[in-house]
Amino acid sequence: YGAYGDAAADPPVLYGSIDALEVVGVTAASVDGYTVYTFPLEGGYDIGNVVLDSGAGIETGRKVFSVDALSSALDYYYDTAADTVTLVLSTPLSSYTMVELCETEHILTVTGAHPPISVTGLDFMYGAAHGISATDVKGLTVHDCHFSWLGGGYLHTSDTGEQVRFGNGVEIWNSGRDIEVSDCVFDQIFDTAVTNQGSSTFARQTNISYTDNTISKCGMAGFELWLHGRFSKTAGISFSGNTVSDIGSGWHLTQDDREGAGLGHFVTSFGNVGSRSDIDISSNTFTDAFNASGTSSVLLVSDTDTDPGSDTLVQAVREGGNTYSGVDEWGYSTAQGVVSVLDGPV
Which of 135, 321, 328, 339 could be stapled to 173 by a disulfide with Cβ–Cβ 3.0 to 4.6 Å? Predict the structure, then answer.
């Protein structure tokens, strides 16, 4: 997958959205000084974000999960049964030059065994799931691509009743081998820029590299890795030469105004049940991480109260010769909630 001609100046763009200005049958009603628009859709996909005028001033819709929760301008609700989006605006819809209804569907999905696949010189924008979702894949190269305004789709409701949302730039799920993501730009991602993760019992992730990418304004992390399968294996993973900044800022901050709800970690891992070895996190530049919970800028969640110094990921971060600025705290969080600040610079 790629482009030819003057693609460097104007690369092809793959949208994961519906152009709201082209939707037929839109209705409008005046309510409490606002105009409430209802858009009939046909795809049956949850709408995980609404981006207006290319996100100028980070102007995006705020997703709510009931009609009764619609209370302010830019609030919107996706009705699953009716397959409609209701959007509250303080200015006429016609005043916008672009309104993208971002669908909860991966823009590019790669699954199973294939000949080596190369994705080069493409833009992935306005999707509410992942830019690229790769599951059980061998041989994938992603080079010189741009990923922006992605994620925010509904994933599931937690045991505590919280609506969990998701959406990464590039995600390697369960098994993956011989994969390279390089010289790409990631910005305005709801969740994480690049990640390899999974839950399969026997998942294998080997020889995966993320190199010389520019990453900013991702809600969760620049880089996330974990495998929860009992007999899973992670080996030969490299995150090097990347420029990572303003993590925890961006459009995801418009979605949750609860105190302490903000995330933002340069590197994060939510436990690793299987074996993990040969992890390289080196020569990266990390600048500014916004984390409302105040836990850490490198967050590692373990299944047990282990010594953070013995964790392979902690060692990789500490010994990688990375450069940091705009960071106040380093930490290691266990499943029991214990946080110990690491001694000295990571």
Answer: 135
The parent domain of residue 92 ranges over: 14-103
Q: Count up the domains in the chain and report the number.
A: 2
pLDDT average, residue stretch 295-312? 56
Give, rounded to a whole angstrom, the gap between the first and last alpha carbons of the chain: 39
Residue 179 contacts residue 76 (beta carbons within 8 Å): no
Eight-state DSSP code of residue 317: H
Dmax of the chain from CA atoms?
61
The verdict on residue 26 lying in a domain is yes
For the ranges 80-84, 202-206, 284-288, which has the lowest average pLDDT? Answer: 284-288
Token reading at 260: 């302490």
Would you say residue 6 lies in a domain?
A: no
Write down which residue in 79, 103, 127 finishes a domain.
103
Mean pLDDT of the chain: 86
287 and 184 within one domain: yes
Shared-domain flag, residues 263 and 288: yes
**pLDDT given for residue 3 in this prediction:** 63
* Whether residue 209 sits in one domain with residue 65: no
Phi and psi at residue 65, in whole multiples of 5°?
-115, 20
Mean per-residue pLDDT, 53-76: 90
Residue linked to tokens 């294998």: 204
Q: Which of 103, 122, 152 is the last residue of a domain?
A: 103
